[in-house]
Amino acid sequence: MPSLQGALNSVENADRDHLVRLSRTFLRVEEIIDSVSDLQRLLDLIMRESEQVVDAETSSLLLFDHLNEELYFEIAHGPQGESVKTIRLPLDESSIAGATAIRRVPINIPDVRESRYWNSQVDKETDFQTRNLLAVPMQRQDRLIGVIEVLNKRQGVCFTEQDTDVLMVLASLAAIAIENAQLYEEKLQSERLAALGQAVAGISHYIKNVLTGLRGSMSLIDTAIQDHEYELLEKSMVVLRRSYGRIHHLVRDMLSYSKGREPNPRAVSPNEIILEIFDLMNESASSKDIEIVLDLDKTMPILWVDPDAMEGIVLNLITNAIDAVYERSLINPNPPGKIWITTYYAAETLTVCVRDNGTGISEAQQKRIWTAFYSTKGSSGTGLGLAVTRKVIEEAGGTLVLNSTLGSGSEFSFSLPAPPI
Length: 421
Ligand SMILES: Nc1ncnc2c1ncn2[C@@H]1O[C@H](COP(=O)(O)OP(=O)(O)OP(=O)(O)O)[C@@H](O)[C@H]1O
Ligand SMILES: [Mg+2]
Description:
The strands form 3 sheets. This protein has a 6-stranded antiparallel beta sheet, with helices on both faces. The chain has a 5-stranded mixed beta sheet with strand order 8-10-11-13-12, covered by helices on one side. It has a two-stranded antiparallel ribbon with strand order 7-9. By secondary structure, the protein is of the alpha+beta class. The protein has 12 helices and 13 strands. A hairpin with a 4-residue loop joins strand 1 and strand 2 (about 70-75). It binds adenosine-5'-triphosphate and magnesium ion.
């Protein structure tokens, strides 16, 4: 690595004072890289260190835009730093930065007026007068990352060979920091894309399943109309309504997951809400030989809670419980399937517990089930239920606790702040 060799030379040839200054700079830059996570700020600090160690009036850091093959100012100290940031330099020898980037070697210009690379555009736009300048390339392996420039040596006529060596080391440290940040951003982006792909795949699968139900009921309706079969028409309408309900819930869940909703509390009787949900779900549970047992707090007052949020939460938890109990009963019919719903009220907090004797959830799985689009139900689940449930509870200032043992069942218990009326 030429930069490291240069630094060693510079260390060998340095006097004691210079050596101390160098070691301090490298230590400080190392510390900056370790402790500052914001790339812009990190580069800004590295450039300030660079200015100090080579005794320059000001400095800039240009990054290479691979797409447009141009260099642009990422950091520009000096009086008109912000206006410099609009300037883009082509990757050719019409500027010192361009020439440094193409040749991949440092360029030290003792007097810019005598340099054929000198491009006065930046000076004109910033009212700054450059006397001398040192530019070094930033690269990782063979990849060009950008160029660092220091301008106007304060003491002395121009930048020295020692300055060049030191700046090369600082440039390679900055290059590592930039590359790490770029890799991290790329990784985040590919993770986001992968998650999106997974989500789209899951939803498409689910919708395809619903569409199959819709197509089936449509052809049944056709037959029923042709044959004037009223009973068949009624049956088909049940399937049609179920399919509509599934799409409706999917859209509702996706909206509340992506947008969130403002809690809309009203004076309600939580036990009444549970009784309504019981009426709604009991038929589907008993068709699977599952008993729903209610244990409702008889002293429950009328409370100030959001009934839609509460209904959505309990419906999601009961639907999951029915699925888990049914899945277990297919493998092992004993004990008989049961779901217990308990409510109680204390310290202005409403607590609702949904317990089942279904499959239970392994410890490893307990960490994953809250992630949107995570489902073990193939095309019959979207994996949005728990993600939305948890979000709605948290938006209402409540908490959700899970206790589950694989093979024995699960208990989801949520609490919502609920002042009495
Ligand atoms: N009571 C439960 N018992 C066992 N496993 C459960 C229970 N509740 C949730 N799970 C597991 O958590 C996963 C995620 O649940 P979630 O409600 O988010 O999605 P889903 O039920 O698969 O689909 P949907 O979005 O249609 O509700 C389920 O696929 C299931 O594996
Ligand atoms: Mg669910």
